[in-house]
User: Fold this.
Amino acid sequence: MDLRVAFDSVSKKFRRGERHDSLRDLVPAMAAAFLNRRRSSETLGDQEFWALRNVSFAVRAGEALGIIGPNGAGKSTSLKVLTKLLRPTTGSCMVHGRVGALIEVAAGFHPDLSGRENIYLQGAIMGMKRAEIAQRFDDIVDFAGVNAFVDTPVKRYSSGMNARLGFSIAAHLMPDVLIIDEVLSVGDMAFQQRCFDRMVEFKKQGIAIVLVSHNLQAVSRLCETAVYLASSVKASGPTIDVLDAYVRDSNKLEPTVDDGAIELRSIAFVSDGGPATTHRDVAPGAALKLRMEARSAHPQDDVTFGFEIYRSTDQLLVYNGHVHRPELGSPDDFNGEFHLDLAFRANLVRGHYYISFCILHNPTQAYLVQPRQVGTLAVAETRSRSGVADVDFSAALSLPVGTPARR
Assistant:
């Protein structure tokens, strides 16, 4: 496949507090800038810091790459380098073909121009002829849902309207590469679903996508590969592996307490005919089972097994289930090799979740196995829902007998 995006060992540094309010401040700053030009680009000067450090990735036609990481990790900076709003300090980047980009809400819009005028302006910037833009104009406006306000200055638009129009322009002007920053976190659920569906169509058409998002479930579903940034690359490769690394770091879960009481050998999802894995893509309500294999160094009696589910995006605790050992119908104590099956249903709305597990010694309230992430799951849906629980919602409409049909 054709290489559409190449980010090769890119670094970008900035200077903190670069403001000059007086001639007294400006003259030393100019002298420092002159001296800095002679300094190696690999060296940090006073008050400088690396926003990106030796970052590399590539995207081919028909592929989607997700970029994830905490706030201030350099995600938006990398997109600005890709779209040539910023020049890298070292390294190089290449984007081949026409680029559709939405890297900030209303980025590139002229606030005093109307939505209509900004559509034509953005198309011209992308190198399109007026006739080409006019041909797609109605589709752009309909997708964005701003028909009633298309002749209103965009400075009067809400952030959601700006985001809808910005994505619609980027998505309808036939890009070869689509670069998107957090569009799936702005706007209502219906619009977010339309955006997602549109990007799935783009992949089928051979368009390359670079997506920055905190919506881990969307990244999991859309992107084959991902990069976890924290100025430098913390993890890259298959999306599932990168998401797991990011969730582990985000929640700072402690490793197992190594006091020899209980040794965890393995823990993974198990299913008939399927390989054991610590990640599952599932439908709402799917029946799941985690199997833990372990060894107890000496008999255990009064212990509790803890099981919790968190939403990865905001670490919201969505389920907390603890099982006391006598509830399991086991002997008074257990010793040596054993396994524990944790069965549950994913009655959750769409999202990315992680599972935490622990073993608590009740008399001393000490952890024999410290709370730790043991698995992740991405819940998919055919329609967008918000909230946490999947309540199997449906609606039915009926009319009284004899009610005339509306014409």
